[in-house]
Amino acid sequence: MTLVDNQHKTATWTKQFISGKWVEGSGEKTIENINPYTGEVIATWRSSSQEDIDQAYESAQKSSVEWKATLPSMKEGVLRKVSSLMEERKDEIIQLLITESGSTRIKAEAEFAAARRIADESASFSFRMKGELLPSNTPGKENRVVREPKGVIGVIGPWNFPLHLCLRSVAPAIALGNGVVIKPASDTPITAGWLIADLFEQAGLPEGVLNVVAGSGSEIGDYFVTHPIPKVISFTGSTEVGKGIGKLAGEHLKETALELGGNNAMIVLDDADVEHAAQAAVFGKFLHQGQICMALNRIIVHEDIYDRFVQSFVNKTKNIHAGDPADEKTLVGPLIRKKEVERLLELVKQAKEEGAQLVLGGTQQESVLMPTVLADVKPEQEIVQQELFGPVAIIMKAKDEQNAIRLANDTPYGLSGSVFTGNLERGYQVAEQIESGMVHVNDQTVNDEAHVMFGGEKSSGIGRFGGDWAIDKFTRTRWISLQHQFREYPGVN
């Protein structure tokens, strides 16, 4: 199935979605949506303007008032319908992810499943908004702490897991009674924006609750963040951009949910099962070409098993398929842009000059960087301190357990971590010492479950997504007291 074959036609995916209508953007720029593997233009669309953003936020604000008062069962019904529609349109969605973001079929299947679980989990949120009754020292006073939606949420979606990571904010926010405006990444406006709007429209969401504007960050990004209507800006993307969003939001006393970059490490201890650790590391490094915030950047191996691990890791990497993302066997497909291949090859070249050993790869086939492995990488090398976001594996040697922990923590990032060991309690004790929001013992770093908290420390972000943590993020609490009997006030007659 291709985009032009499906029932919505390519032309549908070139318009903004505002107040329940598909309308042409009114910005000055025309932007091309390009297939990263073939280089073909999927669609051409006109960017949104500041006026479009005004209309989208105003629509969300107006519609959210009535949506907030809608019965919980109606909110649940919309989210259940979205999930059902996703299943009905699974083949189409999988093809869109492959075509637009260069997702391999393996990754697209995983993203689809994760995104659908988000919709299913969010469906229950309207029944999980709990308030409290608290005692008072004032006679006759009843203290109520009520929970309610925050109002309007601005969501800036990424290109790497466009459907899942955008829906991760959109579905909970809507389920909890908020209005939403999405600004998808310019590389993936369909799967991070228009597809989501289409699903919610078909599911019966009232007009105006969800809106989509699309354009380059340089043209409309700041205005999208600083606009007076949204109460929360949810952003998933690079740390550099996230810091800029955080600064802008802070100047306007606006709340943020920021899930940013990662320089994630797997520690392989001396008692680990080498084959199992290597297999997990290959998946955690090369899924979606390493273009995942949770992907393994550094693999830190105890010196006693270092050589065996490197050999096993290289052997397993040689067996993975790279190339056409539509091929069911492919694990490594194209990078989102060819300039990313050039960037990574330059980093590999520099690492070799600094003493690292290139034991596999280091070549390209158009926009596909072949799986690359660097061994004997030292902590002071430039490549170690960067989020690579590509299929380049870094393997480092640790003298002992504490040295491995120090190496893992020697980064400004702190998103996800991993520990492999033959003793789970030892793994837990090591995990406690790793400075990251998430750590997985005897598993790789790429894990995400809709009902579990997700988020990082240090430069990897602020806030938590998932389950009850999403409810906290997209709702607010207020204190409303009821004075049941007349209250005497000292000094007042």
TrEMBL record:
Record-listed E.C. numbers: 1.2.1.65
Name of the featured protein: Salicylaldehyde dehydrogenase
- Aldehyde dehydrogenase domain segment(s): 22-480
Q: Which residues form the active site?
A: E259
Q: Which CDD domains match?
A: ALDH_HBenzADH
Recite the UniProt keywords alphabetically.
Answer: Aromatic hydrocarbons catabolism, NAD, Oxidoreductase
Name the reaction it catalyses: salicylaldehyde + NAD(+) + H2O = salicylate + NADH + 2 H(+)
Q: Specify the pathway.
A: Aromatic compound metabolism; naphthalene degradation
Per the record, the similarity remark reads: Belongs to the aldehyde dehydrogenase family.
- Pfam families associated with the record: Aldedh
Q: Please give the Gene Ontology molecular function terms for this protein.
A: salicylaldehyde dehydrogenase (NAD+) activity
State the taxonomy lineage.
Answer: Bacteria, Bacillati, Bacillota, Bacilli, Bacillales
On the tree of life, the source organism's domain of life is: Bacteria
> What InterPro entries does this protein's entry cite?
Ald_DH/histidinol_DH, Ald_DH_C, Ald_DH_CS_CYS, Ald_DH_CS_GLU, Ald_DH_N, Aldehyde_DH_dom
